[in-house]
């Protein structure tokens, strides 16, 4: 293929309009000189091949598709995949860093930052020791994760030093000895909020009561289909987004020739992040994994968070995603080396267990909840069958996890807002799930927020409601001069920042529908220039207005706009 080859054409597919436009890079490896080379075309005998399109201003998303070759060792594939990703998205990585991480820990380090650096470095050292002394597939996956981060870092540095490059070279093998304050921070962003508590950061990032994501798994009438949907809730400066497909030819162990079951996955993500973080994944095994954060309010549990004998959450997720073939095996793998950080309720949907029309399905839905020193999981297909839906909204389902994590104390102080059955989203899901009869109505529910008019959204606030109390939050619309009983209900740069949805047909091809940006169904679109966050909240490379329609993502950059719904 020619250098800088660009594909540009439009196609019509029934309800979808396909937009195809991508740029290719490939990475080659010379085994004699140990030199990696990045090309702006599909070079012969590539280790990694990546196609990319930045369409953030048009659809709210960039798109990245990376493949690696079976002709190279796993370690070479991982490093090359990181290099390929960074060479495409270096500018977005820079801007996302400036928007979300810059200034978090700068020299001279504060007492907290010194402790954080020590914690992360000690944990990295411990993992590297396990990699050296263990030959298990699990630690092989951990090694490949760290090598991919190193490739990402090296590819970024090369790309930023040589703007307009035609080729880039790097000599030497990749390394698992990472800088804890480099792009590794992108991979552990979810863990940082809990590490702030553990290490005594004076000003915490987490607002008390703050939600982080909504999810709904919904049986179609007659159990003819199953919908799996997720809304990310986050700060608005995080809205530089990339939808990704990784197709990596990893083996369970180098030299054995046995490939991992989860060799391909699609997921929602961010620049410089080699995991989802939202989280929302579809795998070649037929599994879908997604989560909402439950957190931990019991300070007595933080003593169990230690840098040794633990693997931070995102690394465990990716190892389980690649190796597990069922909800049970995913839960078992994820539960090893519990870090007690980024404490979530995980839902693992096994599409292989779905039987259209059946009312007696088992192992279809596993639900796992993690807090420090405790993980509980089990087959919750029975609840899904009985209710017709499984909702998730940042409150633990399992009584033991709810009690140990401080749930009863929060209910005693602030009321049913913190209870599993009494929270606003619990009530909205229970009231409205039966209205879902199509993909369009599922999207409407997942984007729902009519907080000024819905009685469920009322609170002991002035004015008497909060944009936090919807399925997709819009906390930016809460008046800055209002009064609120706790921080989560107030005015802040925070809300639902996307929507993802798949069903049992789409999941076979790792396809999902995605909408970028805050909901604008019952509310006005979010606009930086009209918000009071703009001057003080970095948002480099963001569109001014987030008003995007749904698209269909199948892992390629050939994006199809979904024609049946306007987001």
What would you note in describing this structure?
- The chain is built from 13 helices and 25 strands.
- It has 567 residues and is α+β, with helices and mostly antiparallel strands.
- The protein has a single domain, classed as Penicillin V Acylase, Chain A.
- It has a twelve-stranded mixed β-sheet, with helices on both faces. The chain has a nine-stranded antiparallel β-sheet with strand order 1-2-25-24-21-20-9-8-18.
- A hairpin with a 4-residue loop joins strand 24 and strand 25 (558-562).
- The longest helix has 27 residues, at 74-100.
- The protein is globular.
- 53% of the residues are buried.
- GO terms for molecular function: phospholipase activity.
- This is Phospholipase B-like.
- Belongs to the phospholipase B-like family.
In short:
Its EC number is 3.1.1.-. The protein is an alpha+beta fold and about 575 residues long. The protein contains 13 helices and 25 strands.
Q: How are the secondary structure elements laid out?
A:
Blueprint: E1 9-13, E2 16-20, E3 23-30, E4 35-39, E5 48-55, H1 56-59, E6 61-68, H2 74-100, H3 111-133, H4 137-161, E7 167-171, H5 184-187, H6 189-199, E8 214-219, E9 226-231, E10 233-235, E11 242-247, E12 264-269, E13 280-283, E14 287-293, H7 313-323, H8 327-335, E15 344-350, E16 365-371, E17 374-379, H9 381-387, E18 389-392, H10 399-404, H11 407-414, H12 424-432, H13 439-446, E19 494-496, E20 498-502, E21 512-516, E22 526-527, E23 545-546, E24 551-553, E25 558-562
Parallel strand pairs: 6-11
Antiparallel strand pairs: 1-2, 2-25, 3-4, 3-5, 4-7, 5-6, 8-9, 8-18, 9-20, 10-19, 11-12, 12-13, 13-14, 14-15, 15-16, 16-17, 20-21, 21-24, 22-23, 24-25
Helix pairs in contact: 2-4, 3-4, 4-7, 7-8
């Amino acid at each position: 293929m020619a250098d800088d080859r660009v594909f540009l054409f439009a196609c019509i597919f029934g309800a979808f309009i396909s937009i195809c436009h991508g740029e290719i890079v490939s990475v080659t490896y010379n085994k004699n000189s140990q030199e990696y080379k990045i090309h702006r075309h599909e070079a012969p005998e590539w280790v990694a091949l990546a196609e990319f399109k930045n369409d953030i201003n048009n659809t709210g998303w960039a798109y990245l598709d990376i493949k690696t070759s079976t002709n190279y060792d796993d370690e070479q594939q991982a490093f090359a995949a990181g290099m390929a990703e960074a060479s495409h998205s270096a500018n977005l990585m820079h801007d996302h860093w400036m928007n979300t991480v810059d200034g978090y820990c700068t020299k001279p380090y504060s007492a907290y930052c010194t402790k954080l650096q020590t914690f992360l470095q000690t944990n990295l050292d411990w993992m590297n020791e396990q990699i050296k002394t263990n030959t298990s597939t699990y630690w092989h996956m951990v090694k490949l994760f760290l090598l991919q981060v190193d490739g990402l870092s090296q590819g970024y540095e090369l790309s930023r030093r040589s703007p307009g490059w035609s080729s880039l070279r790097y000599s030497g093998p990749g390394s698992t000895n990472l800088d804890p304050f480099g792009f590794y921070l992108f991979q552990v962003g979810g863990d940082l909020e809990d590490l702030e508590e553990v290490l005594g950061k004076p000003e915490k990032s987490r607002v008390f009561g703050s939600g982080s994501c909504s999810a709904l798994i919904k049986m179609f009438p007659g159990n003819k289909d199953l919908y799996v949907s997720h809304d990310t809730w986050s700060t608005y400066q995080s809205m530089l987004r990339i939808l990704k497909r990784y197709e990596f030819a990893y083996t369970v162990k180098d030299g054995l020739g046995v490939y991992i079951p989860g060799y391909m996955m699609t997921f929602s993500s961010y620049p410089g992040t080699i995991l989802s973080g939202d989280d929302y994944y579809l795998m070649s095994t037929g599994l879908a994994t997604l989560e909402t954060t439950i957190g931990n309010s019991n300070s007595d549990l933080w003593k169990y968070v230690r840098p040794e004998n633990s693997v931070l959450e995102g690394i465990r997720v990716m190892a389980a995603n690649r190796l597990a073939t069922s909800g049970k095996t995913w839960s078992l793998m994820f539960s090893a080396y519990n870090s007690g950080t980024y404490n979530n309720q995980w839902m693992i949907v096994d599409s292989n267990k779905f039987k259209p029309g059946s009312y007696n399905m088992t192992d279809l839905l596993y639900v796992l909840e993690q807090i420090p020193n405790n993980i509980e999981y089990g087959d919750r297909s029975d609840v899904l069958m009985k209710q017709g839906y499984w909702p998730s909204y940042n409150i633990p389902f399992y009584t033991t996890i709810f009690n140990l994590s401080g749930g009863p104390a929060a209910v005693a102080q602030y009321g049913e807002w913190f209870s599993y059955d009494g929270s606003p989203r619990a009530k909205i899901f229970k009231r409205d799930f039966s209205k879902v009869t199509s993909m369009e109505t599922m999207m409407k529910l997942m984007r729902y927020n009519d907080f000024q008019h819905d009685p469920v959204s009322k609170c002991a606030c002035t004015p008497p409601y909060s944009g936090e109390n919807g399925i997709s939050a819009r906390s930016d619309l809460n008046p800055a001069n209002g009064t609120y009983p706790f921080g989560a209900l107030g005015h802040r740069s925070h809300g639902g920042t996307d929507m993802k949805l798949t069903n049992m047909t789409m999941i076979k091809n790792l396809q999902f529908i995605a909408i970028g940006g805050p909901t604008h169904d019952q509310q006005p679109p979010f606009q930086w220039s009209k918000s009071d966050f703009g001057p003080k909240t970095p948002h480099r490379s963001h569109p001014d207005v987030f008003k995007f329609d749904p698209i269909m993502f199948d892992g390629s950059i050939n994006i199809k706009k979904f024609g049946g719904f306007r987001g």
